[in-house]
Amino acid sequence: MLSEEDVQSNSYAGRTPAVNEQPDLLGEDCDEIHLGNEDTPPSKLRLNLSNVNAEPAVINSIEDHDNYSSNHDDNHYAQISPEFTPSNFKVTIREFEKRGDGMNAYIVYKLETEVSGVVGYIKKQYETWRRFSDFLGLHGKIVEKYLAKGIVIPQPPEKSISALTKTKTNSDPAMSREVGIQRARQLERYIGRLIQHPRMKNDCDVRDFLTIETDLPKAVQTATLSSFGVKKIFKNFQDVFSKMAFHMEEGDRWFEQVQSQIDELDEALRKLYSVTEALVAARREMSTSEEQLSKALSMLAACEESTSLSRAISALTDTTESVATAWGKQAEIDNAKFSEPIYEYIMLISGLKDVFGERVRAWQQWQDAQQTLARKRDQKTKIDLSAGGRNEKSDQLKVEIEETVQKMDQLEQHFGELSKAIREEVQRFETERKHDMKKILIEYMESTYNTYAEMLQHWEKFEPIAQNIQV
């Protein structure tokens, strides 16, 4: 825990007691715990995480925070989630279909929802059809409501020009099916992330999205060059210039270390994703090469005069064809269960960085209010000295100063509450990440083992035939 000297060194920590005395805008009573220890060096990122026996009072990393929370009965963490109740909530996308022709063509996906124990859901099963733009419209509503509150919002699949072209201009059903299958997996993971969150799963827009059987109003802000998209780009430029003009001196060591760890994790996952993409491409190339080898061997067996040798080559043809099929299946498994989940986490980290950006914006607004207050007080002092006493303009400035003080206190309160909410979101992210990474790696190893075992069986079956070749 920060010492008294550390607390006084923070640019905003000195006003923390006043912040905690005001009502919590998030609707929960909670205390703030200062995380950090300047005597302890920043922890390095470990992808293979294990329990750390740290003293409860020394918290300077994400793992230490998890241990602290689990070893204390009193909850000193920002609780913005409702109390846990046994529930079942699962959304699957198993079917999709192409509707319309030509440039008006689009794909709709069938969402099958199984739910129990969640407030607002009357039935246990729902079935709805949604198009991709509906998902983007839902995401826009979720961002508008929850990003400013420090909630990490999962990112939907990005709009793909190639997928759009295959859907609208390609008449081959196989092409449209390939696009639909991949997009269905991505959308299922996205909606699954939403309903995992204790706050967003009870959101009215999410509930309507999953339960209303009729078509939703067409989203008008999903086009790449829509006014919403232009505003988002303009906002990103504004954020860049604001960070240049108001550089935030981070006073909370915990936030400083967490952001460093998140950056390291992001870089590591991007490198891993690049390798998995190359791995999938290599397996597909192996499948294609084995298939071509099988065809060449088949032609050779047809013109071979030796009966035993022709029989062996024919058996080798069947073996290489089976191996080609195994490589193709493994490539699809690696893409669906290894490469795509890794990319999903890269996008989730992007959502985590967005909430850190919201915290910086909240700090900048607070600092701007402080500067405005200082400027107005200076103006009032000059007017009082020049006029020799109070006048109408001085009284007006006094009212403005009181309003600015009130606004500054509200912004300070919002900054404190936002920091608490982000701490909880980071804890949730780490807990889910450990579980998900374990699942991803185990599934990858199991599928790879099964594929090699299957290929070994094919070659063992071919071995006695090769031994009996008579020349």
TrEMBL record:
<keyword id="KW-0653">Protein transport</keyword>
<dbReference type="GO" id="GO:0015031">
    <property type="term" value="P:protein transport"/>
</dbReference>
<comment type="similarity">
    <text>Belongs to the sorting nexin family.</text>
</comment>
<protein>
    <recommendedName>
        <fullName>PX domain-containing protein</fullName>
    </recommendedName>
</protein>
<dbReference type="Pfam" id="PF00787">
    <property type="entry name" value="PX"/>
</dbReference>
<dbReference type="InterPro" id="IPR036871">
    <property type="entry name" value="PX_dom_sf"/>
</dbReference>
<keyword id="KW-0597">Phosphoprotein</keyword>
<dbReference type="GO" id="GO:0010008">
    <property type="term" value="C:endosome membrane"/>
</dbReference>
<feature type="region of interest" description="Disordered">
    <location>
        <begin position="1"/>
        <end position="42"/>
    </location>
</feature>
<keyword id="KW-0472">Membrane</keyword>
<keyword id="KW-0813">Transport</keyword>
<dbReference type="InterPro" id="IPR027267">
    <property type="entry name" value="AH/BAR_dom_sf"/>
</dbReference>
<feature type="domain" description="PX">
    <location>
        <begin position="87"/>
        <end position="217"/>
    </location>
</feature>
<keyword id="KW-0175">Coiled coil</keyword>
<dbReference type="GO" id="GO:0005794">
    <property type="term" value="C:Golgi apparatus"/>
</dbReference>
<dbReference type="GO" id="GO:0005829">
    <property type="term" value="C:cytosol"/>
</dbReference>
<dbReference type="InterPro" id="IPR001683">
    <property type="entry name" value="PX_dom"/>
</dbReference>
<feature type="coiled-coil region">
    <location>
        <begin position="394"/>
        <end position="421"/>
    </location>
</feature>
<dbReference type="GO" id="GO:0035091">
    <property type="term" value="F:phosphatidylinositol binding"/>
</dbReference>
<dbReference type="InterPro" id="IPR015404">
    <property type="entry name" value="Vps5_C"/>
</dbReference>
<keyword id="KW-0963">Cytoplasm</keyword>
<dbReference type="GO" id="GO:0098796">
    <property type="term" value="C:membrane protein complex"/>
</dbReference>
<keyword id="KW-0333">Golgi apparatus</keyword>
<dbReference type="GO" id="GO:0034498">
    <property type="term" value="P:early endosome to Golgi transport"/>
</dbReference>
<dbReference type="Pfam" id="PF09325">
    <property type="entry name" value="Vps5"/>
</dbReference>
